[in-house]
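User: I'm curious whether this sequence folds into something compact or stays loose and floppy. Could you predict its structure so I can see for myself?
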Amino acid sequence: MEPLKNVLNILQVYLGRFEVQIQLIAICTILVATLLVGFLLWKLLWQPVQTLLRKRFNGALGSAFSFLISVCQAVTFPVLGLIGLQYAQNQFATFGWIDGLLAKFTLVLWIFMLFQVFIVILYNFIDPRIVRRYHYRLFIPLLLVMLLLELLSDLTDLRMVSGVVLTTAFNSPVTVGAIFLATIGLYFWTDTLHGLDDLIFNLSIRYTRLDPGGTKAVLTLGRYALIILGILFVINVLNLDATTVAAITGGLAVGVGFGLREVLSNFVSGIYLLFERSLHPGDVIEMDGQLSVVDNLSIRSTTLRTLNNVELVIPNQSFFTSPFKTFTGSDKQVRVPIMLNTDCNIEPTYVMQLMRKTAVQHKAVLNDPAPSVFLLEYGNNVASFQLNVWLDNPVLIPKTQSDIKVMLWNALAEHNIDLPFPEMELHFPKRVPLDVITTEKNKKPLWPVNAREAAHKVSSANSGNGYSV
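Assistant: Here's the prediction. I'll summarize afterward.
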């Protein structure tokens, strides 16, 4: 622990020097002024220019201008900071003061400017949702740790500090460096592998013709293999011998056997799903009567995204114990039936040709297989038809059905083809004459006069139970 005390003493003495304090005050002043000026520039310059360019230019040219504006916005803060630091260094040189901390912070701003440009490039060429996740979970923490280590390297020997023994576990010394690698290092390793997984997957589906499901399965298995290698490396850094590792894994095995059976079952099910490739990211499935898209397939669970953009996290074991319907297992083409009833007075062949001609006008309907129409049955003045169309994207089933139904409605109206109306039968009790049904309050008929007359004209049949209309 003596090296740590030395580091703290050196830091206390360093911060107590007048030269260091005046440089820190200058740096804080420059940062505050830079933030204010950068905010004003964004409101008064970059934002109006970006809005104007979006209105004037579209397509590739508009995207290029938008990218340039994003780069200018990203480098505004570090450039203004570098200008302020350069001015401060000139003033310090005039008074003959030491400016080593200002020079170090200048390097920090250069690194930050390159980092900002890197982030803008990622946002413009990769899915923003993926970049946003790693922007705050990986890139910013990694940048802060790197800058902190760079600043501490001027105060002390980091190798000496990393070798300081904090405690002893299982008769093995645990150093500061080992703790750093087992916590922060393992976190960065795991998140970096996730980022590389998403980056390679997005580039492969955008610029190659590889199967997205198979690519995702291979990348997932490779990521977990590398994570296991990272854990083994940490175990080696912690100086844990084989006996210690066996004792730890034996205790974990007992805990898993009693309390983590479901987790282990989901883990094994996830590995089996990845190897079997019965389920891929991007597959369209129906589970519990809900149409969903497989968004992510991991070792423990599978994330489904419904058509309402709601994420469902399903344990992998559920896919082995509950049935589900897949629309993209071996073939992504799916047949969509659409039912239609017309009047029997219209020739069926004419209606079938009209339905087929209307269906092929929809851009989502495939020409091969071509749409087909069948006459199912006719009776009670109704002819029932079934139109079958084929799609190559099952997610479009609800929208395509709705569009074609509207198109059929308009086509039938244009060709004067009526849709059948349901028939209704009314029964009136025989013991109560139809013309004497009145209210007790004002003695007015409950039925309109024209309705009674129409009822008598339609039917005068008298059954044992009453009048029928």
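Summary: The radius of gyration is 37 Å. Residues 260-326 form a domain with the SH3 type barrels. fold (CATH 2.30.30.60).
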